[in-house]
Each structure stands twice: as structure tokens, then as C-alpha cells.
Write a structure and sequence with these properties.
The structure holds 2 protein chains of 2 kinds. Helix content of chain A is about 65%, strand content about 0%. By secondary structure, chain A is mainly alpha-helical. The radius of gyration of chain A is 23 Å and the shape is elongated. Chain B is an all-alpha fold. Classes of the chains: A mainly alpha, B mainly alpha. The interface of A and B includes residues 155, 241, 257, 267 and 277 of A.
Chain lengths: ~300, ~300
Amino acid sequence: MSEPTRYSKDYLGHSLLATDKGTSLWTDGWGRLKNNTLAIVSLGVLCCFCFVALFTPIIAPYGYEEQNLLLGAVPPSLDHWLGTDIFGRDMLTRIMYGSRISLAVGFLASAVAVFIGVLWGSIAGYFGGRTDIFMMRLVDILYALPFMIFIVLLMVVFGRSMLLLFLAIGAVEWLTMARIVRGQVLALKQQEFIEAAISLGLSHWVVIYRHLIPNILTPVIVYTTLTIPSVMLLEAFLSFLGLGIQPPESSWGLLISYGVETMEEYPWLIFFPGLFLSITLFALNFLGDGLRDALDPRASKD
Amino acid sequence: MFRFISSRFFQSIPVLLIVITATFFLVRAAPGGPFSAEKSVPPEVVKALEAQYRLDQSIWQQYISYLVDLSRGELGPSFRYPGRTVNELIAAGLPVTAELAFYALLVAIFFGVSAGVYAGLKPNTIHDYLPMSVAMIGICMPSFLIGPLLVLLFGIELEWLPVSGWGSTPGDKILPTLTLGLGYAAFIARLSRGGIIEVMTQDYIRTAKAKGLPSRVIVLKHALRGGLIPVVAFLGPAFAGLLSGSFVVETIFQIPGLGRFYVQAAFNRDYTMILGTTVFFAALIVLFNLLSDIIAVWLNPKLRQQYRSNK
């Protein structure tokens, strides 16, 4: 981060005199984020990918199951920008359809994780005392569990459905979120406006979701951005092992695992899905780091 | 210190018990018995089989007898490999996986710490950015991508190294070790960079500099000890990651280790094997978390003092 330079400017060089109006946290944050080229590029890339994923059925150059057995596997060409697989299926199309699942799992499973984590953490922090000790002790215990192994177990026992995949991954990734939220709520609880809300006779639930949660949105958003890549990695990991997404559906992880089988002859079949997965993970990590620097400058030290 | 160790030890017992109980009932809740697929088997045989695997008892009896067996270290017979016990399968796979994980950990610590310290000593210069960008690549590239790419480059294109196996041809341990270790090297590099940057601003480092100690001594003797505390704290969780990473690496390189057994057991629905390995993994992970906590306390004088004064 840049150091404080001149007294008339804040530490990022925005003139302090120029702003007569007060700025909200979000405008401030956006101003700081805009200066972070990597984060903005990442945001752009992610928006592109999401757009493509949303409109895949319209813009995909070929059909999802469209085979061309006579053609077979060909390297990237003008007709097939990213080549074709052994059935002559267009890789670009397959990667586009795969991105729908990969991104959907990333976002939805993260949503599950965020929901549980925020609820758990804010309840523990708000009520404190024995509730807090009990709830956070449980989080500590869960932290010590071999989770990857547990997800594999869940997928085996309950069959490999997509819904279960969302739930299983979400159920694993909420722990850190719960800890972060609890810490924030503990600090906020001491402040007067919460005291005022309670003394006005608002119910616990209203205090939590009207007054506490809106005030901890920043760390929640930042940490959510960092949860998505780890969720996507988990999904790809499971799909790679054959325990995640099942054909005919496909995700980047599954495409990579197909690619591995034939990479000796057709290296592009592993290269391109891998490239897109890596780019997405890169972008999410950079965006998360950037958002943390922009929205929560104090936390970015560690 | 003794008190700290014993209290942490007793805290980990309920964790293990929860894992055992949850796994046991999850596996029993799985739809379809283990023998329901084999329709041609006569009912008497099924009965005999069920008796052998104690499936004819009530679930609580099964649970209690499983716990009793477990306390004697018995994990029971395998469903899929008749005549072999889960203990034997684990005993066959464990040395391979342990060796793989050990080498990978060495690689991760060696590359991670040297890159992190190198970067952390000159923060925000090219000496920092370059290794840290490489580390970022290591974090964003999952092992199931690094592995095949390494195979493609060193095994198939350059033909320097064998592409599969473990201990059968010279050099075949290199690629699996790198595949498993490099991701963790990247994490450790980030952690040790942060630790070193933090430590180098401390007063005791300034004192050491003022004493005129050579920078080599300052870094190796004074900064490393404090700067590596986050790394040590990471090693416990990293070990769990190494175990699940071994699932992928052993599948890619066709290594007959515990991770591959686990994945195969998952596919074959070898319930006793899944149950046994999960319990075994859990025990290992709890043990390593415990060890890394103890080392972290031992390394950090402040924490050590705190536990001493608590007596």
C-alpha cells in the first residue's frame, strides 16, 4: 500500500478538499479498488466468464452432444478454436458448458457456506456466554476433522448428486466464515447503537439481521470472494477423482480428468480446461485480495 | 508444558469419538447392503456372510462391538477383498503414502521457506514479486493439473523421468513428490514471507543488527525462529491436505498407496475399508494437529510463558 504523502490528500492520493460530500464505505472502497489494476482485470475476466456461462446455449459454436466421429480429435483450428476430443466434440463448446457447472457450484456452494457461517457466527457472538462457548467449541472440533475424506464419504454413501455436492461442500467451508463473523459481532456488540436497539425492545432476530449483519458485510464479502475459489477447487478435485459431477454433465474438473487419459496424444484436451480453471482461480484470488485491501485496509496487513 | 500437552491430548479424544460415530452411522445409512448386488448368492450364504460381518446384530450392538474392536486396534475384515483385513490393507498402503507425504513435505518446506525468506527480506522489490508470483501460480494450479503437466513435460516430451510407479524404476519418485509438494511449497512461501517481514521489524532484530552480527546469522538464528511460527502452525492442517492430495497423486501415478486404496474403496463401496481408513486418517490428522500445536507453543516464548504461568 502506498504511504501517506501530503497532508491535503489521503493515503491514496485522493484530494481531501475535493470531496465536500461524505463518501460511503462502498464509494471509498470502489475508489481504492479502481487503482488496483490486477483486481480490475480479474473482475473483468470473471464478468466475461459469467456472461459466457449464462448465455452458453445461445453463443456456443456447436451443440453440447454434437459428435463428429469421422473428424475425431483434431488440434485447435479455425473451425474448432480449441480443438476437438476423440468423439469430435468441440472443446470450446464443452468448456463453455463445463464452466456453467463449475461456476454454479462455486457460487451456490459458497452461498450455502456463507449462509451457515454468518448465521452461526452472529448467533454465537450475539448471545455470547454458554451459547457462544458451545457453538464455537463445535467449530473447533469440526476444524480438526478430515474434511476432504468426509466429503468423499458423503458422496459415496448418498450417491453422487449435484445437490448433495453443493450441500457437502457448503457444509465444510463455513467454519472460517463463522469465526470471522463471530469476532466482528463480538466487537460490534459493545457499541451504543446495538445497545440502543436492544433497549428499544427490538427482538434478538431483528437486532441481528437489521443491525449486526449489515455492519459486518465487508469482511463477509471479502471472505466470500476467497471462499469461491477453494470451493471450485474442491469440486474439480472430486470430479477429477470421479466422485463429483457425473457425465453427461461436465465441469472443468471432469474435462481435466478426461484430458489426462489421452494427454499423450492430444495434449490440448487437458491444456485448455486446465487453463480456464487456473485463470478463474487466479482471478478470484486476486479479486479477493484486492477487495480486502480496498474495503478492509486494516485486515490486509496479515 | 506437560499440562498443555495433556489437556490438548484429552481434547482430541472427543473429536475422534465423533468421527468414529459419525462415520459408522453414515456408512450404515448407505442404501443397499454390501451383498445386495450379488443376487445369485443363496440366502444361507448371505446369512453366513452377514454373521461373519456381524450384520445380523442390531446397529447398536454392531456399534459397540466396533468400538471394542477398535480399542484393540482391529478394523475388521474388508468387504471386497475376502480374507484380507482392513489392517492388512492399511499396513500395505501406509508405508508408500507415508514416504510420499514425507518427501513432499520436505520439498514443500525447503522450497517454500527459502522462497518465502528470500522474498520477505526484500519486500516489494523484484526479489519479492518474482517468487511470489510463482507461488501464486502454485496456489491456483491444483495438483491434478500440475501432475499431468509435469508428466507431459518431463516424462513424455523430454523423457527424463518415468511417468508412473513407485520404487520400481530409478527416479520414479521425483514427479509424484513434486506434484504433491509444490502446492504446499507455494502456501509455505506466502506464510514464511509474511512471518519474516513481521519479524524483521522487531526490536530484537534491530538489537542484533546493532550488535554488528552478520546478516546471515541474524536471518538464520534470530529471524527464522520467530518468522516460521505461522509455517509450523500450518503444518498440521497441511498434513491433512497431503493425505487427501495423495488420493489424486496416487491415482495419477498409479502408486499403490493408502490414498489410492481409499478412492478404490469408495468406488467399490467397500464399507468396512472406508470406515477403517477414515478412522485411521482422522486419528493421524488429530495427532498431527496436536504435534503442530505443541511445536508452535515450544517455538514461541510468549506462549510458553503463558502456559507455564497457568500452572
